[in-house]
Amino acid sequence: AQRVTQPEKLLSVFKGAPVELKCNYSYSGSPELFWYVQYSRQRLQLLLRHISRESIKGFTADLNKGETSFHLKKPFAQEEDSAMYYCALYNQGGKLIFGQGTELSVKP
Amino acid sequence: KAGVTQTPRYLIKTRGQQVTLSCSPISGHRSVSWYQQTPGQGLQFLFEYFSETQRNKGNFPGRFSGRQFSNSRSEMNVSTLELGDSALYLCASGFTGEGEAFFGQGTRLTVV
Question: I want to staple B106 with a disulfide (CB 3.0 to 4.6 A). Which of A51, A82, A87, B88 is the partner?
Fold first, then answer.
């Protein structure tokens, strides 16, 4: 079954510390993976997708097919990074399978 | 460019009633998908429409239905509402529907 797992519901770090939000997936085939973010009182928005290999707002994510992971990383967390982060797997026909989300809290 | 617009933003309905939610996608987007978000189940896919055709459907009962019009606007309907249908319903649009989705702010449905 296709599934996305985000093991941490809440991740709390101090400003300037590195951050890694974990995402593991289960998919038979070549996966297309995304990270979406929801800041407080804002709509859910795309942060990055693995095929673009971009760094957005200092965040990067590498697809590791061997470990079936797509962890989101940032070397130095900022307070404005505090938000809800969702890892998502594209299935087909417009369907995204979302993880349960990780709330990132960056303390000053 | 205007974002995805969902109306209404909030709804309170009684068990057994039906409800229709509306979604206006970003201009030029032909894919519209719907998700249900609850604290317990998270974000769950309901269905997706592309050029007026339903391409995919999630594991929801037949009480949940949708449609898309020629201008890409979409509606979803829930009949015979149950308390468990209380949720935030999100609509998302995209050019192709292949993962890159632009979300609306959602409609908060409360069933009493």
Answer: B88
Cα–Cα–Cα angle for B35, B33, B46, rounded to 5 degrees: 40
Tokens 């997936």, located at residue: A25
Q: Say how far apart CA B65 and CA B69 lie, in whole Å.
A: 14
Considering only CB atoms, A86 lies closest to which of B43, B45, B58, namely B43
The answer to whether the Cβ–Cβ distance between B99 and A43 falls below 8 Å is no
Q: Is B83 helix (H, G, I), strand (E, B) or coil?
A: helix
Q: What is the pLDDT along chain A (108 residues), one digit of tens a residue?
A: 899 999 999 999 999 999 999 999 999 888 899 999 999 999 999 999 988 777 789 999 989 999 999 999 999 999 999 999 999 999 877 899 999 999 999 999
